[in-house]
Input
Amino acid sequence: MRTTTNATSERSNTTPEHIDTRRGNRARRVNRKRLIAVGAVAALGLVVGTGFAVQDAVKTQERIDATAQLTQATGLSRDGLGVYSGIAAAKAASQAKDTISLANATLAAADGKVDASGLQASVASLSDYELIPTEDIVGLTKQTKAEAEKTAAATKAYDEQQRIAAEQAAAEAAQALANANTPDGARATARSLAASMYGWGDDQFQCLDSLWAKESGWSYTAYNGSSGATGIPQSLPGSKMATAGADWETNAATQIKWGLGYIAGSYGSPCSAWSHSQSVNWY
Output
């Protein structure tokens, strides 16, 4: 009878309803653990891409899915994911710091040349990178880099334009100097300066023309080996003309300015100087 009773008792404890109840309890416990695990992972808020680049999280489910994929791919535990998150944040902060340094150098190069307001705004937004979320740092860093490249390209184009303009100006100045340094160019310069600086008209210029034609043939390179007289006005010594300009050796206009001043101070007018030269053969 005891054997029968135990068998009956065991069968009564394993009825289909009892089995279903135990299975349901286990399923609920498993689901509860899964939910806790998913919630813990979601709380991390991680969306990490190649090279520790954190993608923007726009939906909760996307963050959960991406974190789950990361867990599966790396085999990291919850603690491991926390460490990985810290590495990603440090990497993003380092990139932000480097980008700000690059951007500031770009701003310095662009100062006074091109509009860099877009880059300035981006740098201002990224400057608090130590306080803003990692995913925001990544987006702002990318934006700042793009603005820096844009500003650098504009600055390079500006510098190239300035270089070309400077070369053109230098070429034009050299050509103007070459033209002015010819005898005819020197005469034209002398006529203009005599009128503008001293009020001497064509009658005085005729005397000046005769005087310097005799002295140097209006050549700015003229040099008297015997006396050392130099240039169009035959300054003695030639270094006196430095008072009119440091380029006195290469610029006919500088020599003319000095020569006109010498005539005005010593003789009063070109015709008086020419008269003296005719009398004594020098002036």
